[in-house]
Amino acid sequence: MDAHQALLQNIGKYVSLTQAEQDAVCQAFHPTELKKKEYLLEAGEYSNHMRFIASGCLKLFRVDDAGNEHILFFGMGGWWVNDLYAYLTETPATYSLQAITNSVVLQIHRHDLDRLFDEIHMMDRFFRMKTQKGYVALQERTTRTMSLSAEQRYADFVKRYRDMEQQIPQYMIASYLGVTPEHLSAIRSKNTR
Amino acid sequence: MDAHQALLQNIGKYVSLTQAEQDAVCQAFHPTELKKKEYLLEAGEYSNHMRFIASGCLKLFRVDDAGNEHILFFGMGGWWVNDLYAYLTETPATYSLQAITNSVVLQIHRHDLDRLFDEIHMMDRFFRMKTQKGYVALQERTTRTMSLSAEQRYADFVKRYRDMEQQIPQYMIASYLGVTPEHLSAIRSKNTR
DNA sequence: CGAAAATTTGACATGACTCAACTGGAGTGG
DNA sequence: CCACTCCAGTTGAGTCATGTCAAATTTTCG
To answer: B185-193: which pairs have CB atoms within 8 A and are 24 or more residues apart?
Structure first.
């Protein structure tokens, strides 16, 4: 499907826009194609765009002081991704955003998005609802991280990301789950046996 | 300070409302006083209100299948708290909300809030921005949980909640940090020595 | 095909948990 | 106002989950 169509459909699930509004939205979002391993945002850069994944798969991650990578989540088609803190505060990003598979992303500059917010009440509402949904998802993830064992978290991950599990290398899943690749390997072999 | 004043001030940090809008907002929010240990919401109930803490301190937590309590965060004056998933989906709450100290909370019913959203564009914007900020805070917490040791997380907690640390019993801090009370006790005694 | 990257395996180390006993302070009722 | 109870916090011994490191194996991809 066309990237802009995917965007309108995503928005349409929450609010209704007039044709003129839809046109204004489409004009403000610009598509970017990413090849596997390409960066959309690197820690240290400024994040001046909101980003909608039309297709493909990206990861949002941070590298800690010890050099370990921690993946916050995998974004798929239909997800919005960003280092939101860096975007909101206009400070250098502390997270990076990188393509895991070839992807198409729609980006809107802060300037254009703020204009849309002023012109279209429903855009404020859409982003409110989207952010609320994202908040809920993150809260669930946090709770699971705190209350489940590594083995349970992996089982849960497989369920949750059933369709993408194949495309994501195992060491990234380990990073997402907060365990070492070795330990995840051990968990898997134990469960297969 | 008056609870409604605290609310208007909180909103005013993000958006401007006319006097009429401010009046409409104040009328829609109803204050509740809570004594220490009183529940504002219990798992299983429906959450039909958005809640603003005017003063005091509450905890948002979930009890897992094994009966262990996991505290997601401590809410203080100026925070908004809820089981957002339960609110948004109108399903029974899986989290509970309980006062740690005597508190005053302003509540608005879903019905009234939705009306405000329709009448006042800036209310959509305010909640968008508030939710974004909450999302960012939660993301930070998640990253810290994944990348820091229990000892580091405790040090970080003390810094972050400096003013409230005294009022929160240690076993709740342990629950927030995701460690057992015994282990937190060991960490503290090690650091004091 | 060959090199680099990802995964597996195993030995060992350690952080955090469990359980049980003990201490000390904050109510509470006689 | 004392004795008692209850709850939070501490301590320590033993255990378990997960991490570290190193090497072997498999897969990917130029």
So the answer is: B187/B150, B187/B151, B187/B154, B188/B154, B190/B151, B191/B151
